[in-house]
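User: Hi! Is it possible to get a structure for several chains at once, not just one? Here's what I have:
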Amino acid sequence: DAGVTQSPTHLIKTRGQQVTLRCSPKSGHDTVSWYQQALGQGPQFIFQYYEEEERQRGNFPDRFSGHQFPNYSSELNVNALLLGDSALYLCASSLVRPDVRYGYTFGSGTRLTVV
Amino acid sequence: AQTVTQSQPEMSVQEAETVTLSCTYDTSESDYYLFWYKQPPSRQMILVIRQEAYKQQNATENRFSVNFQKAAKSFSLKISDSQLGDAAMYFCAYRRANYGQNFVFGPGTRLSVLP
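Assistant: Yes, the chains can be modeled jointly so their relative placement is included. Here is the combined structure:
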């Protein structure tokens, strides 16, 4: 049973560019959440997608946008990249009503470096 | 807004010994969940243990146990018989009990296990 798959694993971009990160949820999961983890910090919630719509959003600017496809996979897009966007981006999948114990599965993340 | 604090940026423990990681949180909610996640160099967040706020009994998972003090808003993790594989970043996390809620993570504690 495949877990959460994120691609690419590493990425280097230049300031001002745009980037797209991808996430395939665990089989059977219908909800995808994205987190940004800056170096030496805990993950911070960006947004959550369910039924192809953004359901919740954290304190991130509109430069961060996303999409969920009918097969539940998701993309995170970041426009006009800043040096401060350099971070590990984690995807977590779940059911919209997750069991507390087993409900969330995290991927291994995409390491984005902005130069 | 909910916040999670981990006051120990780094901890170390001798193999086979016991170590306790501290976590405090702030919330006005009465129904919520608390978690400890482990993040090894592979970067994937792995659930270690979770606690439902409505349960007075402290959760235990093999060598891992928590001390949940709801009134004090404290949630510490005790690792017994520490093993080399326990070395990782440990994150304390909070989540409201409503469906689809996101995690609020603390800044993490880096645990080293000395042979």
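The mean pLDDT of chain A is 93. The interface with chain B takes residues 31, 33, 35, 40-45, 48, 50, 55-56, 58, 88, 90, 92, 96-98, 100-101, 104, 106-109, 111 of chain A (CB under 8 Å).

User: Great, thank you!
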